Amino acid sequence: MIRLFGKNYESTKANASITFYGPAGITVFRFDVEFGRIYLFHTHTPTSFTELDVEFRAYVEKKMPRILNWYVIGNWIAQWHQDIIVWENKVFKRAPFLVKNDGPILKMRRWYNQFYLSKEDQESLADPTD
Question: This protein's superkingdom (predicted)?
Fold first, then answer.
């Protein structure tokens, strides 16, 4: 919810649901607020072996106050922007250290594995003479 000059505005409280479609593909955020609903699409499109184009597109009900629309979407993009340094410095750990609250990470990693290139495929992409 929006907190302004020490005052909470209960009518701006949002419930959010997040759905992921495919690896590094589309993430759909649905924010339900007293004034209406916001859908925010966050997409990742690989442009090279190590780069992505990232885009955000929002669809907002007309009755939603613009300031609330700006706050919800701007807040999410700002949080995502702070994570860039994490994403740029990730390393793969075959056996990561996990704790109980990490959830089904290993199950997700096994599913994601189908989308990775084999070493041979990676090498052929890196060698332009093939």
Answer: Eukaryota
Which amino acid would we find at residue 58?
Answer: A
pTM: 0.68
Q: What are phi and psi of 6, to 5 degrees?
A: 80, 0
Given this model, what pLDDT does residue 28 score?
93
Cα(48)–Cα(128) distance, rounded to whole angstroms?
A: 14
pLDDT of residue 108: 83
Pair of tokens at residue 108: 């997700």
Cβ burial of 54 (10 Å; 0-12, 13-18, 19+) is middle
Quick check: 1 and 12 in contact, CB under 8 A? Answer: yes
Question: Average pLDDT of each block of 10 consecutive residues along the chain (130 residues)?
Answer: 83 83 83 88 84 90 86 87 88 85 84 80 68
| DSSP-assigned states of every residue in 1-50 | -EEETTEEEGGG-EEEEEEEETTTTEEEEEEEETTEEEEEEEEEEEEETT
Tokens of 17: 């649901």
